[in-house]
Amino acid sequence: MKGSWNSTSTISITLYFLILLTFNFRDVFPAPTRHLCRPEQRDALLKFKNEFEIGKRHPYCTNGHPKTESWGNNSDCCNWEGITCNAKSGDVIELDLRCSSLHGRFHSDSSIRNLRFLTTLDLSWLSSLSLSHNQFTGTLPPNITSVSNLMELDARYNAFAGTFPSFLFTIPSLTEIDLSHNQLEGTLEFGNISSPSNLLSLDIGSNNLIGPISRSISKLVNLERLGLSHLNTQGPVDFSIFSHLKSLEDLDLSHLNTPTTIDLNNILSYFKRLGSLDLSGNHVSATNKSSVSDLPPQLIQALYLSGCGITEFPEFVRTQPLMTNLDISNNKIKGQVPNWLWRLPNLFYVNLSNNTFMGFERPTKPELSSVRNPSIEYLLGSNNSFTGKIPSFICELRFLNTLDLSDNNFNGSIPRCMGNLKSTLSDLSLRQNHLSGGLPKHIFESLRSLDVGHNQLVGKLPRSLIRFSTLEVLNVESNRINDIFPFWLSSLQKLQVLVLRSNAFHGPIHRASFPMLRIIDISNNHFNGTLPIEYFVKWSGMSSLGKNEDQSNEKYMGSGLNRGVIYYDSIVLMNRGVALELVRILKIYTAIDFSGNKFEGEIPKSIGLLKELHVLNLSNNAFTGCISSSMGNLRELESLDVSQNKLSGEIPQELGNLSYLAYMNFSHNQLSGLVPGGNQFQTQPCSSFEDNLGLFGSSLEEVCRDIHTPASHQQYETPETEEEEEEVISCIAAAIGFIPGIVFGLTIGYILVFYKPKWFMNPFGRNNCKRRSTTSH
Ligand SMILES: *[C@@H]1O[C@H](CO)[C@@H](O)[C@H](O)[C@H]1NC(C)=O
Ligand SMILES: *[C@@H]1O[C@H](CO)[C@@H](O)[C@H](O)[C@H]1NC(C)=O
Ligand SMILES: *[C@@H]1O[C@H](CO)[C@@H](O)[C@H](O)[C@H]1NC(C)=O
Ligand SMILES: *[C@@H]1O[C@H](CO)[C@@H](O)[C@H](O)[C@H]1NC(C)=O
Ligand SMILES: *[C@@H]1O[C@H](CO)[C@@H](O)[C@H](O)[C@H]1NC(C)=O
Ligand SMILES: *[C@@H]1O[C@H](CO)[C@@H](O)[C@H](O)[C@H]1NC(C)=O
Ligand SMILES: *[C@@H]1O[C@H](CO)[C@@H](O)[C@H](O)[C@H]1NC(C)=O
Fold first, then answer.
1. Is residue 132 within 8 Å of residue 176, measured between CB atoms?
2. Which of 313, 536, 557, 645 could lock 569 by a disulfide, CB 3.0 to 4.6 Å apart?
């Protein structure tokens, strides 16, 4: 590998991101406490750290952070972030610097070569070149072939362009190539494949490759894993070319854009060891015409047949005792889900979504007895035609982690027996059914996400929700729940999404404070009362996203990755006046919708603290007073609706600076004065300003010539009042709750008494209702 440094360094032009050095080393344990790392290895690591700068974070790494920053010479390097030591020797054996924002050149004489383990593990080391999840562009240099011992090339998730680098096949040592998720284009040509090829694994899926699959692929006789997903064949495919690849264990032929119908039984008959087969997005005939027993014995563990135009449940699955993952979503399968499915002892994930299943066949005795020892963790059956009650056998699936039965016609109440699942069930969606009755009180204690929206549920929210300490998403929208505001949910440290929309909730909400909340929709209820000025002070989830303790790199809200499966949350929200379905919820998305209630009094000035707020809807309430200039701090705001209130005074000029504010609506209030300038204001339709006391300005003149504007640019001059003075003081009091944890107690008293610094006031801004006397002439 020594000679390889030169060549690899040439492709490592910009390490804008993350470097992942993989080692073929089985004995990897977490950092031990018994062995301190060796001083010379520690020094080499520190030197390595200094060879790079900490650059901008890669967009993929939403929650990554510079791991090397924590490295320091006065501690055990085995405990540093990203480092794994051999448990026995204490040698540094693994470096994981994914998403660490390292920026710079990977030099061929990098001090990392001085690490002692490099000599010991010389052969297996960088034999593996992993460049995945970076932003490499350009083409792979042909002289990569001079890396004499290269065994594994992992360049997934980059932007490598150009034609398929068939010269890779001339590297005799190469056993694994992963170029998936790049921008490779042109036809797929393998060139001269060295014979016999040692290649065990080839993944070139998700590129822009077009044309037929090269026949020479049949020479890769040792292939165990082949990925050709999204290869745009543009024509018929002769699938018998794969019949030569007798060693295949994992075959991904999804989305080939071919008119050829794949005969499932036929393709299965080619292989003896196939464990995973993905034919999603192709035409597949899974009819059970040839007897199942004609097939050679298979050991299929994962079968993905999503969107294959299948009309019958593939009977073949019945004979697959090792099956763990079955995806038959997006097909046209009718009738009942067969009961023998629950007899498969290893089944872990079943996706039946988007079919026309009517029901679940009742399990008989043999099924029930195997159901008692079930392995199934994911059961996804959304968007089918299931009717009747939710079947009670589901309560027997004791390892069930995720159950999605949304968009069906289930009726009756939520089965109380689901209490059996209370220690395992993490994600439950029963959205869009016809369920009635109340929400069960004592079940679901391990839930992360609960969505029962769009049903006919009545009663109160169970107070036992307070024990759901893992709850992140609670959505009960569009039911008939009649309750006061669930203040007690404030104690849920992880709650990020709360949707109570369109129920019969009532009363004040003034005591609520939610540290992690990012999306709250309580619109169209009967809430009333005023909101105190400091109302939003503790809503830190919307004021700084950095407070998110989330360590994962996942951009969207959902369950954690579990054996390759993630369940993503989804939600429908009003944004810019239209119902927006977020099939996945970006973790940076934030929204407050209090519209359609009876709130009165002023809009709390502390709203200006929510610097990460994207959507704010306060329309259709009875808010009075002025719009605080503090809203000018909402730099991420995209949509602002304060229409149909009793707001008076001016629209703060500060709002003119909000560059993302694409939608705003001030109509049906008592506003007056100059409408702010700025691009965003000039592109609004007239109806966004109509029915006010007297708004004027060049922005308006453009868009609404027909609404009446006041004759003169009058000033609203009133001297500052005592009341205003008081407001300033309460603003300061309110801000105390917002100061980051470092500054506390006496320090605050000191600042308050002696300084009253300017930034202290910023979140609340000045009062716009009245012009100060100093500004008048
Ligand atoms: C590989 O080719 C690049 C140019 O494409 C050149 O800069 C580099 O020196 C070459 N490396 C070796 C080891 O030949
Ligand atoms: C850590 O090492 C560097 C040089 O390697 C030295 O300059 C620095 O003073 C050391 N810091 C501590 C705290 O020992
Ligand atoms: C493939 O190899 C043969 C001989 O082994 C040679 O004649 C031919 O030119 C090669 N083709 C390419 C495209 O390299
Ligand atoms: C549920 O639906 C079934 C048929 O779809 C119907 O026969 C039954 O009466 C319904 N039950 C309730 C409680 O509405
Ligand atoms: C189930 O299948 C649907 C349709 O293909 C897909 O959108 C969804 O993500 C799948 N669910 C899970 C948890 O994999
Ligand atoms: C605000 O909410 C009201 C009522 O809930 C809705 O009609 C309106 O479209 C929403 N505004 C925006 C900008 O989404
Ligand atoms: C602004 O809101 C009013 C009432 O809330 C609505 O009638 C009007 O269509 C809205 N304007 C725009 C541009 O959405």
1. no
2. 557
